[in-house]
Amino acid sequence: MKENMREKLLEIKEIALNNINEVTALEEIEQLRVKFLGKKGELTSVLRDMGKLIAEERPIVGQIANEVRDELEEAISSMKEKLSEEMKMAKISKEKIDITMITNKERLGHRHPLLATIEELEDLFISMGFSVVTGPEIETVENNFNALNSPENHPSRDLSDTFYITEDILLRTHTSPVQIRAMKEMGAPLRIVSAGRTFRFDDVDDTHSPMFHQLEGLVVDENISMANLIHTLDIFIKELFGSDMKTRYRPHHFPFTEPSAEVDVSCLKCRGKGCPDCNYTGWSMELLGCGMVHPKVLEYCGIDSEKYSGFAFGMGIDRITMVKYGLDNIRLLFENDNRFLEQF
Ligand SMILES: [Zn+2]
Asked: Can you give the residue ranges of the Aminoacyl-transfer RNA synthetases class-II family profile domain (predicted)?
């Protein structure tokens, strides 16, 4: 009886292993598991006859049965693994994308380098606690000149320098009138930047255009001093161009600030060492203008100049974009030639 059962078990094992090795699909392997190892499976039905054995034979047959079951379980699970792996690979190869295939998909555009620069500058100032405000490109002479303490005989007011629409209306020559609007509307304290198009009667050459872009900043609060201005611009330049950049302030005159300064920044090519680009001075000249807001400008906007003081700064975004991207001709920014724009 014992020998009988032993043979029967080994026979089941051999048949089962052969069947398992021939399987080609996951469903089949499950069917085999049920057939041999399931509750009504062949191995189970042999074991049901264990009761007919004498007591000494039971452990011996039991051990063989366990070994057979373990072997079959292992064969089934390794075959399952093999089949799933094959299925996965087949699926992947079916889903492979042919990158050489030609499609008619529309090409996506991207930010113009000027807009990218404006957004980078705005983000920088937002991170320093400034709010971004905007104003109209068609302005009053009042906001563009008078409120900014620009004397009647100032050369920038001349017909040959400014696009007048009527006697009182013009295309703004700088973004400063946005500061006037902000001070009138919001009062003090104030911390704003404003970027946008500005217009001057300039002939087009490599560095000039009748339409150009500025970004201006204004801070008005109690106890604001030149030290705050220098510190703010210094951080700004380091954030924009790198921590090794230096700033230099040269006295200048603007009607709307007093004192006023022009700001030079370390030459970006040589980073201050001196090179042909900067005439071996190590400085990029006149990258920004700045100063302490003239008390007359504060008073004009209804802000108490005894209590409040402020600083303002402005920069040409076209110039900064050119320096940043190494361009030598401002026209490239406005011609909208895709061969140029696609490089960014
Ligand atoms: Zn240089």
From this structure: 121-335
Q: In sequence order, what are the residues at sequence separation of 6 or more whose Cβ sits closer than 8 angstroms to the Cβ of residue 314?
A: 174, 175, 176, 214, 215, 216, 217, 288, 289, 290
Q: Nearest 5°: phi and psi at 281? A: -90, -25
Ligand 1 center–CA 282 separation, angstroms: 5
Q: Is 56 labeled as ligand-binding? A: no
How many angstroms does the Cα of residue 123 sit away from the middle of ligand 1?
27
| Rounded distance from Cα 275 to ligand 1 centre (Å) | 4
Q: Which of 203, 218, 212 is nearest to 137 (CA)?
A: 212
**What range defines the domain where residue 251 resides?**
113-342
Q: Is the pLDDT of residue 1 over 70?
A: no
The 3-state DSSP class for residue 235 equals helix
Query: Cα of 284 to ligand 1 centre, how many Å?
Result: 7
Find the 269 Cα to ligand 1 centroid distance in Å.
5
189 plus 327 within the same structural domain: yes
Of 301, 145, 332, the C-alpha closest to 218 is: 301
* pLDDT at residue 180, rounded to an integer: 95
Under DSSP, is residue 213 helix (H, G, I), strand (E, B) or coil? strand
Looking at the structure, do residues 91 and 121 belong to the same domain, yes or no?
no
Rounded distance from Cα 264 to ligand 1 centre (Å) = 12
Same-domain check for residues 89 and 162: no
Q: 4-18, pLDDT tens digit by residue?
A: 888 888 888 888 889
Whether residue 296 has pLDDT greater than 90: yes
Highest mean pLDDT among 49-53, 68-72, 123-127: 123-127
